[in-house]
Amino acid sequence: MNDDKKPVISLTTESPYIVVNLKRFENLHGKKYPLKPIMGLCRCGESNDKPYCDGAHKEKGIDWEKKPDRHEYRWKNYAGDEITIHFNPAVCSHDGSCRDNLPSVFNIDRRPWINTNGASVDEIIEVIKLCPSGALCYSIGGQRYSEFYSGEPLIRASKKGPIEVLGGIKLNDDQGEKPETEDHYVLCGCGWSKNKPFCDGHHLEKLKQNNEK
């Protein structure tokens, strides 16, 4: 694909996510959203047309700064007999793919929560590939693997939170923020993340609060 035609996401401290040249745009269940050559996607959480921006941020501005009490950026290593799993809580969007698909390895009610010998290497790799944020990767024989997505560029957006970005879509952030992995990462769409512009799972807290009302 010509570089001029590749999809790009750009943002400033005062703008929504500006997406250009995207060919696939859908929700988390695969239903397609209408595409435009240039789209603004909500990052403040206040739009009435989510996942699109409707200009709601112009009233209160955008809270774009990282919070001092966010998770510490630190890779934790869980060595097994044949594979080592690496996890970084600062990057995690808490979508639950690891926990739901392989609880014998990923169990948040257990300490340590990752049991690297709890399943076969192939099973572990397949589930790590489901992680949308780049918080999980693995090593075998001293070689680290963190880039997994080989499909066409795609954005999967929830109307209540995360914006999953797949396929090597470049992120141009005027603050110089870079995703952990180029081929898959998750942006905050609710405005609650403490690790903006990336999702840290705080949309789950917001959903819980709304359900209790």
List the helices and strands and how they pair.
Blueprint: E1 8-11, E2 17-20, E3 25-26, E4 38-41, H1 57-60, E5 76-79, E6 84-87, H2 97-101, H3 121-128, E7 136-140, E8 143-145, E9 154-157, E10 163-166, E11 170-173, E12 184-187, H4 203-212
Parallel strand pairs: 1-11, 3-9
Antiparallel strand pairs: 1-2, 2-4, 5-6, 6-7, 7-8, 9-10, 10-12
Report on the structure:
The protein is α+β, with helices and mostly antiparallel strands and 213 residues long. It has two domains: 127 residues, no CATH class; 70 residues, 2-Layer Sandwich (Alpha-Beta Plaits), CATH 3.30.70. It has four helices and twelve strands, in the order ββββαββααββββββα. A four-stranded mixed β-sheet has the order 4-2-1-11, with no helix packed on it. Strands 3-9-10-12 form a four-stranded mixed β-sheet, with no helix packed on it. Strands 5-6-7-8 form a four-stranded antiparallel β-sheet, with no helix packed on it. β5 and β6 form a beta hairpin. The mean pLDDT is 93.
**Spans of at least 5 consecutive residues with low confidence:** none
Domain unit count: 2
Secondary-structure element pattern, one letter each: EEEEHEEHHEEEEEEH
Report the strand count: 12
Give me the oligomer status: single chain
First-residue to last-residue Cα separation: 48 Å
- Helix count equals 4
Strand content: 15-25%
Mean pLDDT: 93
Largest beta-sheet details: 4 strands, mixed
The order of strands across the largest sheet is: 4-2-1-11
- The SS-based structural class is alpha+beta
- Evaluate the radius of gyration: 18 Å
Q: Assign an overall shape.
A: globular
Helix content: 10-25%
